[in-house]
Amino acid sequence: MIKRHKSLYPLSHHHHHALVRALEIRRAAEQPEPERTAALHRAGRALVEFWKHNGSVHFREEEEVLLPACARHVNIAEEPAFVRMLAEHAAIRAGLQDLEQALADHQPAQELIIELGRMLHDHVRLEEEQVFPRAEALLGEAGLQAIAPRLTQLHPKACEANPAEHREN
Ligand SMILES: [Fe+2]
Ligand SMILES: [Fe+2]
Questions:
Q1: Which one of 17, 95, 111, 124 has the fewest beta carbons within 10 angstroms of its own beta carbon?
Q2: What is the pTM (predicted TM-score) of this model?
Q3: In sequence order, which ranges of the chain are alpha helices (DSSP H)?
């Protein structure tokens, strides 16, 4: 368990739920057919729901709250972890848009779902191992406390892919 400043707990909490989704996809992919197809489809739908109600908000918190705070201390373009984080946000957004479309069109999406699970897993690792430690070092205690009120707590039921009203607090 990585030691984390308490101001970033909400973001790390979201990461935990993203990892649950990624694990669910990996397990679905390991099942034999015909269960595999149905399990991946379910996991894909759950991922889209998670994205719509939690993941997309989380990305914006990182881009609109965390990164601008860091940009007061460094040039983001010169920070490899931050640059990679933004590139992965774009790629994950693209994948999620494609997945939503594929599900709406009843097109097969197994490979895309598996790939998105992998991307999500690797993205969380990047942020927990590199982005957040760097942000903590840059912002310091006062800077971290200053951004805390702008980071969303997840609704406790968010991990059940039942996203209703997670932003109420
Ligand atoms: Fe992110
Ligand atoms: Fe994140």
A1: 111
A2: 0.89
A3: 9-30, 35-50, 56-61, 67-71, 80-104, 110-126, 132-147
